[in-house]
């Protein structure tokens, strides 16, 4: 796992087509903007965990 610090307005690139940008940071809360091709599936962490837990219990 890569852990880096970014300030609002700064971003990281994943390959050449996915940008993750910090758009707001205050009081320990962070807002990210993700620019990715439409065919890239993006799922929030809590939903991803719920989906995986459902698969395991079925």
UniProtKB/TrEMBL annotation:
A biological-process GO annotation? negative regulation of translational initiation
Any Pfam family the entry gives: CsrA
- Superkingdom: Bacteria
* GO cellular component annotations of the record: cytosol
Q: Where in the cell is it found?
A: Cytoplasm
Matching SUPFAM superfamilies: CsrA-like
Q: What function does the entry list?
A: A translational regulator that binds mRNA to regulate translation initiation and/or mRNA stability. Usually binds in the 5'-UTR at or near the Shine-Dalgarno sequence preventing ribosome-binding, thus repressing translation. Its main target seems to be the major flagellin gene, while its function is anatagonized by FliW.
Matching entries from PANTHER family are given as: CARBON STORAGE REGULATOR (PTHR34984)
Q: How does it assemble?
A: Homodimer; the beta-strands of each monomer intercalate to form a hydrophobic core, while the alpha-helices form wings that extend away from the core.
State the family it belongs to: Belongs to the CsrA/RsmA family.
Listed name of the protein? Translational regulator CsrA
Q: Which organism is it from?
A: Pontibacillus yanchengensis Y32
